[in-house]
Amino acid sequence: MRITRTGGGRGRRAAALTTTVLTASALLLTGCSSDSDSDSSDANGKITLKVADYGQFGYKEAGLFAQYQKLHPNITVKEETTANEADYYPKLLQQLNAGNGLADVTGIEVGRIKEVVDTQAGKFADLSKSINVGDWVSWKEKQATAKDGSVIGAGTDIGPMSLCYRRDLFQQAGLPSDREAVAKAVAGGWEDYLKLGEQYKKKAPSGTFFMDSASAMYNAVVSSSPKQYYDADGKAVYKDSESVKQGWNLAAEAAAKKLSQGVPQFQDPWQAALRKGTIASMACPAWMAAQITTYSGDNYKGKWDIARAPGSAAANWGGSFLAVPKNGKHVKEATELVKWLTAPEQQAAVFKAVGVFPSNKGAYELASVKNATLPYFNNAPVGQIYAEEAKSIPEAVLGPKDAAIKDTISTQINNMEQRGTSPEKAWDAATESIDKAIG
Fold first, then answer.
1. Binning pLDDT at 50, 70 and 90, where does residue 45 land?
2. Nearest in space to 285 (alpha carbons), one of 224, 328, 243, 203
3. Rounded to an integer, what distance in angstroms lies between the CA atom of residue 306 and that of residue 32?
4. Closest to 228 in 3D by CA, of 218, 217, 215, 243
């Protein structure tokens, strides 16, 4: 899992693939730290490159650090992982502001990239001078591009959207269960998804719910729009954003009609719901399949499936970058490592190992990505589903406080579901909190 955050944040756990097949692997995340200012070279000219990241980027699991060290005998790569991105990011900002303590390579989550680009770009190496940034999906490059044209982050993964659902529960409720039929049933968009939910509720197997949380659906709706929380001039416009309005209204409808179990994603009740098998469907960015596999367990293998996301608008939820601080002791070597880690073959290897989807377009034509299927999800052809989605995702306007806005709104949606808070009071509480946070 790249990060585990409450509310609207993104969470990921590992899923291992075979050459053409994805399989689950529950991997524990642990945090660690070390003194990044210590000498990272020895008398023999050997150097240590420190990579600071959060959750699970998958490089160790894919054997990439070990492989890189074999290719470069004079280099040792040391990964410093923080389990939770919410803990990682404040520390990164402190290090940037202090000008010390930074690793040679540092990860940056997509919800933070705009703030870093706007306020800290001068502290990172321009990767466009050494990496062909055109290899990534175009919107990924633009997310990490500063006003002066420098590119401060190399794209790692992305989160193209799909719909994960329980075939057996859909069948028991009299709904279509074939993935093509499900995709057709929600082809009109998330409004159709709610209509399907109402049908499900009429004959729902006892103790089950159509979706996990309305906040997850909200995030999927907003993620499909190029205009979300900010405009192109950097002004916060979330109060007037059509995608936010649509997502909020759909979430309020789902809460009012009790189509959701109302369990915030990635928290203990959500994990327990997956173990008990009470969730029939959920918005499903590429990395979510591994979460479901891990927590649902062997009892539900083959009962889950994956269909294309509702509507015709593609969506992205999640993703990260690797950046190289300018004041590092080994900027050239660190940049070469980043270039290698984000090349098609290495991104495909990470996809094979932990299930996070590549941002490098070249990886989509490799067999291990193109032919990838998920046995746990009835052999869903995820390589094809995610690649097609990725190629048509619109370029979204990002803002410096996207993550804070998203999380605050998601919290209030959870309040509508769990506490019965009215949409009006929930919205007022969300906007009051957001306005204080963003100034």
1. confident
2. 224
3. 35
4. 243
CA-closest candidate to residue 414, choices 304, 277, 265, 223: 265
Residues pairing with 79 in the sheet = 51
Size of the chain in residues: 439
**Residue 425 neighbours by CB under 8 Å, 6+ apart:** none
Query: φ and ψ at 56, to 5 degrees?
Result: -145, 105
Residue of 274 and 397 predicted with greater confidence? 274
Identify the residue whose tokens are 């719901």. 273
Written as one letter, the residue type at 328 is G
284, 306 contact by CB (below 8 A):
yes
C-alpha distance from residue 255 to each of 187, 200, 422 (Å): 22, 15, 10
Residues 380-413 have pLDDT tens digits of 999 999 998 888 898 889 899 998 999 999 999 9
- What token pair was written down for 28? 């524990």
Q: Do 230 and 398 contact (CB within 8 A), yes or no?
A: yes
165-224 pLDDT, tens digit each: 999 999 999 999 999 999 999 999 999 999 999 999 999 999 999 999 999 999 999 999
Q: CB under 8 Å to 62, separation ≥6 — which residues?
A: 346, 349, 350, 352, 353, 354
Lookup result for tokens 């957001």: 434
Which of 5-19, 138-152, 196-210, 374-388 is predicted least confidently?
Answer: 5-19
Largest CA distance in the chain: 73
Question: How many angstroms separate the Cα of 416 from the Cα of each of 20, 30, 62, 262?
Answer: 42, 33, 41, 9
Strands (E) located in 225-309: 279-285, 304-308
For residue 349 the two structure tokens come to 């290897």
SS3 385: helix
Per DSSP, 83 falls in state S
- DSSP helix/strand/coil, 336: helix
Contacts of 415 (CB under 8 A, 6+ apart): 421, 426, 429
Dihedral sign (CA 52, 53, 56, 61): negative
Q: To 5 degrees, how large is the angle CA 281–CA 287–CA 291?
A: 60
